Amino acid sequence: MTLDADSDGPTESSANADPLLAVEGLRTVFSTDKEEIHAVDGIDFDVREGETLGIVGESGSGKSVTARSIMGLVKSPGRIVDGSIRYRGEDLVGKSEDELRAYRGGDIAMIFQDPMTSLNPVYTVGNQIEEALELHQGLSGSEATDEAASLLESVNIPDARRRLGEYPHEFSGGMRQRALIAMALACDPEVLICDEPTTALDVTTQAQILELLQDVQRERDLGMIFITHDMGVIAEIADRVGVMYAGEIIERAPVERLFAKPKHPYTRGLLESIPGRNPEAARLHTIEGDVPTATEPAASCRFAPRCPKAIDGCDRVHPSAVAVDDADADSAGTDGADDGAIDGHTVSCLLYPEDRSREWRLEGHRDGDSIDATDLEGARTDGGTDETTSRGADATTSRGAGKATGDDASADTRDDATNEVIDE
Amino acid sequence: MSRLGYLARRLLLAIPVVLFGTSLTFLIIRMGPIDPAAAIVGSPDTPSAQAQYERTREQLGLTQPLWDQYVEFMTDLLLFDLGQSWVLSPGTNTYDLILTYAPRTLWLGFWSILIAVFVGIPLGFYAGLNPNTRADYLVSFGGIVWRAMPNFWLAIILLALFAQSQQYFFGFDWSGFVVDSEVTGAYQFSDITTSEGFVREFKRVLPAALVLGSASMGNEMRIGRTAVLETINSNYVETAKAKGLSTTKIVWKHVFRNALIPLVPVITSEAFLLIGGAVLVEVVFGINGLGYLFFQAVINGDLPLVASLMYVFILVLVGVNIIQDILYTIIDPRVGLEEGSA
């Protein structure tokens, strides 16, 4: 029973249509005496069998907290305050520590960023793999040793049997990450969360580990969540991508579409920052500034202060997800049978939908979780325009705008941004 | 294999340390202000006394060249020919003196290390597992206070409390509790194998052991707390959690063993302090142990006894160091790595 995910049970082919893991409206907040940090602020995504969801974003955008929220490993003072995490329909939010533990490893396994410190230095690699085998597959003794050896072989560690008896410090970085992958596989999971598994490794090792993860996923039909800040890695491994910024997913799309037709100014910025993608540019493009720390519920677009395309209104209205039709959207039609928002391309930006006027868009984003054309027609008439324009007038004297949103913390940066607003 | 090699290396390195320490002892004794002949016969102020003084010097071998004295001194000690006491109890073999006094100190040291380890470390680990709770604050604060109390002061206070327990503890009679025992005085080991004798001697050693172990207990608690906190936030503990292991297994398997690593040198270095601290405590509690014997020997200029005791102390320290290395190699597989590859 080496690499056979089927041995686990008969459930699998029938469940194909339903997502393995569905996250909805997840909010994780870190409360300190001084402030509340909204590390993950209402994100939705799902993962199906055999599929890789890439989550990409800068440092501090909330990627790792998302992963830890799913595992139930958010460290104090962080806690999940809202939303649901459904694994095969079962909501994990609100479950007790003991109940959550039943899901960890065997159902949802995780591979961490730093292989150098993620193995316990005082136990042999074999011991740590066999520990997982015993817990999740009930193997012990020589059976467990055999299985552990074949797992190590399957992650391309030569001389596996001897390596089992060695300690982590006798392994190189790439080997340790392989051992950690073997350990995660020993749990026989359905979903594998990889939190920047290649960040700490050198480039050649990175490529090998990516390839290994892809092989492993294919063999076992795993649902995979791959977290990284590296757009190149995303292009290689992901099927669908969610772009995270300051705790929110601001754009999601199948990977080809995201790279071909990025919609959000932030995504465009990220793509332009990949070296070599834009050979004629003399200097590499960068996005000025840092990811802000979200200390209050979102009342505006959090990217607005850094956004080169910010319009009047970005500092007052929090954008909702808009489904954007790519011109060649025929591919969406093929498997659009279930939720179009999942397979389709959505973006949370006040610039969309592009074919509507600015006021219409502001109003629409202010109102809804998702933009629906019919809703918006109605919303537009009931006096909302007045409010928008009067607020808009305030905003031209930019100082007032910062206060209007109650977001004093970043008022300074916002002032700069609004001064440069390209008013339509 | 490399770990065995590492141990062998440490054992070999211990030899020059013993030689150097013993040589230094010789140097200090011979160069120091104590004149052993005068210590035996008194100051030579009359001609007859002068003659006796010279005779004694001759007998003691002090007229020989210093180099010869050194060689004799070293070979005798290394062969455990510890000589005889000159002043304290003239003519008695030093060896016998040590055999009489040492068990008392060992008994005291054993319990003070054990109590400190078995109280300090669990408390520290508990505080580390429940950081920033009321219990943690209580333990941490208590640890600092306990550690801050000086040995000699704590000894006197505990002595007073235990000796007059009826007055302070609402009529609870410590001396008569379970078996009759006194609070002070040298230990009697003649009937230690019987349960009554064991309980009696344990009761007697308890106050002194508490005092002697107090500093180490506080240290072990604080370092244990920090070590557990550090370990529990480490990446490998997160990996273990993500694996789905139970909290019990994570704490006992993954946290404690790693948290013990920084405690090893603390425990062993406290063992050194016990030798020095024992003198004070032994005096206050009236225990005639090695510390007391050493102190008396130094004051009275009983040089062979001083030298022999120093030699014993050096051996104990080196031995404790080697025990520390053995503990390291058992707990932490990374120890000995460099030696292994060299």
TrEMBL record, chain A:
Residues 386-399 have a biased composition (Polar residues). The keyword ATP-binding applies. Residues 362-424 are annotated as: Disordered. Its main location: membrane. GO terms for biological process: peptide transport. This is Nickel import system ATP-binding protein NikD. Pfam families: ABC_tran, oligo_HPY. GO terms for cellular component: plasma membrane. Residues 21-271 form the ABC transporter domain. NCBIfam families: oligo_HPY (TIGR01727). Keywords: ATP-binding, Cell membrane, Ion transport, Membrane, Nucleotide-binding, Translocase, Transport. The keyword Membrane applies. It is a peripheral membrane protein. SMART domains: AAA. GO terms for molecular function: ABC-type nickel transporter activity; ATP binding; ATP hydrolysis activity. Gene3D superfamilies: P-loop containing nucleotide triphosphate hydrolases. InterPro entries: AAA+_ATPase, ABC_Ni/Peptide_Import, ABC_transporter-like_ATP-bd, ABC_transporter-like_CS, Oligopep_ABC_C, P-loop_NTPase. Its EC number is 7.2.2.11. It is found in: Cell membrane. The complex is composed of two ATP-binding proteins (NikD and NikE), two transmembrane proteins (NikB and NikC) and a solute-binding protein (NikA). It catalyses: Ni(2+)(out) + ATP + H2O = Ni(2+)(in) + ADP + phosphate + H(+).
UniProtKB/TrEMBL annotation, chain B:
Belongs to the binding-protein-dependent transport system permease family. It is found in: Cell membrane. It comes from the Archaea. This is ABC transporter permease. It is a multi-pass membrane protein. One of its GO terms (biological process) is transmembrane transport. Its main location: membrane. Residues 102-324 form the ABC transmembrane type-1 domain. The lineage of its organism: Archaea, Methanobacteriati, Methanobacteriota, Stenosarchaea group, Halobacteria. Keywords: Cell membrane, Membrane, Transmembrane, Transmembrane helix, Transport. InterPro entries: BPD_transp_1_N (IPR045621), MetI-like (IPR000515), MetI-like_sf (IPR035906). CDD domains: TM_PBP2.
